[in-house]
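ingest -> validate -> predict -> emit
validate: passed (alphabet ok, no gaps, 123 aa)
predict: started
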Amino acid sequence: MGWLQRLFGMGKPANPEQAVSGQAAPNAVASAPPEAQVGGTIPPERVGLDGQYDQSGLAKRVALAFDQDPQLDDVNTLWVAQLGTTVVLKGSVPSQDVLSKMVQVASGVNGAQSVDTNQVQVG
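emit:
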């Protein structure tokens, strides 16, 4: 079971590369509540896998990015969440190398400004 399936109960989208990029769909602003729009657009951290508004869009796109990276097996003891533009990793990982790779991948997802690993245990 992959990250996206385990954390959000979702399968991979048809175009995973586009989903990870976090590009809003042309009609996406209509799906967003007015308070979530910034200058008539959806902030990148709120763009979901389908390009529409999604409160957990960044976390879902990070989970998909983890699924797309062949070096990252699903670590059943780690969860992905978000607080605004911060990706929050919680749980435990087997090694510092795995955690470093996860931080690198998560940081590369559009909309992620930082990655919080304070709630991750290594080992």
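The radius of gyration is 14 Å.
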